[in-house]
Amino acid sequence: MSKENKKRRLKKGKLACFIFIVYSFAFLLFCLIFYGIRLVKYYKIYNPKGEDGEKISLISSAIISNNQVVETGDGLYSNNGTYMFKGNVENNYLYFSNQMFRILKVNNDNSVDLILDNPINNLMWNKNVVDYVKSDIHKYINDVFLKSLNKDLLKKVSICTDKVNNISKITCNNTNEESYVKLLNITDYLNSRNKDKETFINHDEEALWLSDRSNSKPWFVDGTSISTYDPSETYFVRPVITLKMDTTLVSGDGTENNPYMVEEKKNKLSVGSYVKLGSDVYVVYEENDDSVRLALGGYYNDGKVTYKFANTSNSFNPASTGTLAYYLNYNVYGNLSYSNLLLEEDWYVGSYNTSYKDIYKKSVKSKVGTYNIADMKFGEYDESYFLTTPGSSGKVYSYGEHMMESRVNLQKKIKPAISIKKEKIKSGDGTKNSPYELEV
To answer: Do residues 207 and 179 lie in contact, with contact meaning Cβ atoms separated by under 8 Å?
Structure first.
């Protein structure tokens, strides 16, 4: 090889070496910047600080640090980076968007799953659909219920869509992650039970819809019994949501009287707020631009007064004497010291056929009404009261321990509902024990 060829090869080698060094340096610089940014990002997520530089605790960290992990009995269990509550625990309460939830688990990404502590309704799954994601009940909780929540703190939920034909053989190979709200699934329900099958989820053995389905029917839990039933049946609805991994703790220790709080108090009328008018305490169940709808937290006249819906008709008609609608808009209205605050509104009286949206097809004007099928329901529900929704065969729906079609001439307790303008708050914190009092 000639000297000139050797020089050329040497130059090429040096150039290749230089290019390799430059690319390597650029690659290392890229990695340092990329992973450095991610490191800073996750450091800020897991070590959040307030405006004054004070360290803030994540709700996930607070839950884990406030509980000793156990292997038997009631308490917080650990499994592959997930922490879940089991049994009769009393320190997993979390207050969010004016509603009380129970903490199901802290996921391995530090997001937190919650289930509403009380049902918001009692509805059909769907008459024509068994697939949960396509069911009317899934649409309902991601429409009516979701509107009541602070969506900024929510992560989309993961819904297992595998069919379950045997609860001893549950798989989760397929998921849907397009919604913000779901129902409890069989696996999470079973994981919440201790060895005696006790769980913080059950209330008075109420029957709850679950999100799982078999080949032909949806699953539900009734007390400690898990089984399938016809989708046209009505069972209680207790939604499940997931808080984002960077949700921070504001206050609280997880007990019922001092639940975890993840939002600063807004001091405004919104869904779930309790309001005192005269000597009556109402709860807001619908928020509109300049008004709110409220239902009495208990029963009219402490439940001492009962009234039939009508003699024969299942239509809510305030002009028809001898009916509940007439009694509400004359007798009840006339006894309210704050009747001047009440707005005349449309009260939806459509029939409940295959969807909760059916009830919006018909309405009547009045100043006092009561819940319909689609309304979120708060307050007492231990004894049944009439709704404005007509049923089949001349009957009308009533709500209480069950949702059912009742004869119109039965005597039931009364739960009035009203609409008022959003007024300034004078005192109170909007809870049941300290309801807002308004400047009126």
So the answer is: no
DSSP H stretches of helix in 291-356? 324-327, 333-334
Q: What integer pLDDT is reported at residue 165 of this predicted model?
A: 95
Residues 244, 248: Cα–Cα separation, whole Å: 9
**Cα–Cα distances in angstroms (integers) from residue 169 to residues 82, 192, 214, 225, 378, in the given order:** 21, 18, 12, 17, 37
> Are 306 and 250 in a shared domain?
no
Token couple for 92: 């997993």
Beta bridge partners of 309: none
CB neighbours of 220 closer than 8 A, spacing ≥ 6? 207, 208, 209, 210, 226, 227, 228, 229, 235
How far is it, in rounded angstroms, from Cα 64 to Cα 436? 34
Look at residues 261, 288, 306 and tell me which one is the last residue of a structural domain.
Answer: 261
Q: Is the dihedral of CA 191, 185, 64, 198 positive or negative?
A: negative
- Give the Cβ contact number of residue 274 at 10 Å: 22
Q: Say how far apart CA 388 and CA 348 lie, in whole Å.
A: 7
Which string of b and e fits 152-182 if b means at least 16 CB within 10 Å? ebbbebbbbbeebeeeeebeeeeebeebbbb
Judge if 210 and 162 occupy the same domain.
yes
Span 292-325, pLDDT tens digits = 999 999 999 999 999 999 999 999 999 999 999 9
pTM over 0.85: yes
Structural domain of residue 225, as residue ranges?
A: 59-261
Asked if residue 143 is part of any domain, the answer here is: yes
